[in-house]
Design brief:
347 residues; mainly alpha; T2SS_GspF_dom; transmembrane helix; T2SS_GspF_sf; cell membrane
Length: 347
């Protein structure tokens, strides 16, 4: 199932309401009871299960874990930390801020590409209308309308075939994205190659580092030890490429006694400018406070990176629309010139 996990917007709302309620002194059971009225049917059912499990004596994090992959792993892990350190209220509020930041970045991207996508859909709609009209209109001389598009498609059946092709292209793109998310055949090992693509690669890396630093700040601030904090942060990137560095970081800390920056350097996953900032942050104060400042800086960088990615996506869509227009301009021009040459030959 593609959408089994709780959405980040829903996760942010849940954590915000729980954090505010706990801060106000409300009982956990009453808060969970209220949460059974929010969200999708699947979310309400999952929260109901958590409520019943907590009534039976389980911790919230354990009850969440029982629901498999529905609750984000970051939420489950951080809730466990909050329960063990007595900072559940602050943990929920910090998680809410984190998820809301992710929603903001996603909304920024979607808003930026909305108009180009509308233009592309309108262009495909015009083509569909032309295909349909070529099937129902007949010239005065009889027969069929000239295939001005050159696709060999006419009428309602032609429109269905045309959109079938579009659906196939969309399915291929979605399959590639899903295969990457699931690390099919180890495709995420190609991440360093993606980072080498001008503009696109550095922006993608910045967004990933922003998620890593924010999670690391959350974990250290909640009192989690550096090894578990880094492993949780690597996991929050949703990339097996980054998760692979967890054991190397632990070995560097336990066996060689490296600092946080030294352990991250041992993973060979992070760029030197980022590691330098971590080293500077370590020298400027406590780990939790210094990484929190670094997380704030990278969140700002992530917003700029998302604008870059949305600009790239916008450019690709506009180039697609322009390519379609140019194709039809040349197609109509060639037909017009062919008609002129044919008329000249008859004369």
């Amino acid at each position: 199932m593609f959408f089994r996990q709780m959405g980040i917007a829903a996760a942010g709302g849940f954590c915000r309401r729980m954090g505010i309620g706990l801060r106000a002194g409300a009982d956990v059971l009453r808060l969970l009871q209220a949460e059974t009225k929010y969200g999708s049917p699947r979310q309400r059912e999952a929260i109901s299960h958590v409520l019943e499990s907590v009534k039976a004596g389980f911790q919230i994090s354990d009850a969440m874990k029982q629901r498999g992959s529905f609750f984000p792993r970051l939420m489950v892990s951080m809730t466990r930390v909050g329960e063990s350190t007595g900072t559940l209220e602050r943990t929920f509020l910090t998680l809410a801020t984190h998820f809301e930041q992710q929603v903001t970045l996603r909304r920024l991207f979607l808003t930026s590409i909305a108009w180009p996508v509308i233009q592309l859909v309108l262009g495909l709609g015009v083509i569909s209308i032309v295909i349909y009209l070529m099937g129902i209109l007949t010239p005065s001389t009889g027969g069929q309308m000239m295939d001005i598009l050159g696709f060999g498609l006419r009428g309602g059946k032609g429109v269905l075939i045309f959109w079938g092709y579009i659906a196939c292209v969309a399915a291929i793109l979605w399959s590639l994205y899903y295969a990457y998310r699931q690390n099919f055949a180890g495709v995420q090992n190609l991440v360093p190659l993606l980072y080498m693509v001008p503009k696109f690669g550095p922006s993608l890396q910045t967004i990933t580092l922003s998620r890593f630093t924010r999670t690391l700040s959350l974990a250290l601030g909640a009192g989690l030890d550096p090894i578990r904090s880094v492993k949780l942060s690597l996991d929050s990137t949703d990339s097996d490429y980054y998760r692979s560095g967890g054991e190397m970081f632990e070995a560097a800390i336990r066996d060689r006694g490296d600092t946080l920056a030294g352990g991250l350097r041992a993973t060979d996953l992070f760029p030197d400018p980022f590691l330098h900032l971590v080293e500077v942050a370590e020298m400027s104060g406590t780990e939790s406070e210094s990484i929190d400042h670094l997380a704030v800086e990278y969140e700002e960088r992530a917003r700029m990176a998302m604008r870059t990615l949305s600009g790239i996506a916008t450019g690709v869509i506009w180039l697609t629309v322009a390519g379609i227009l140019i194709f039809f301009i040349f197609r109509f021009a060639s037909m017009y010139l062919g008609a002129i040459n044919e008329a000249a030959g008859l004369n």
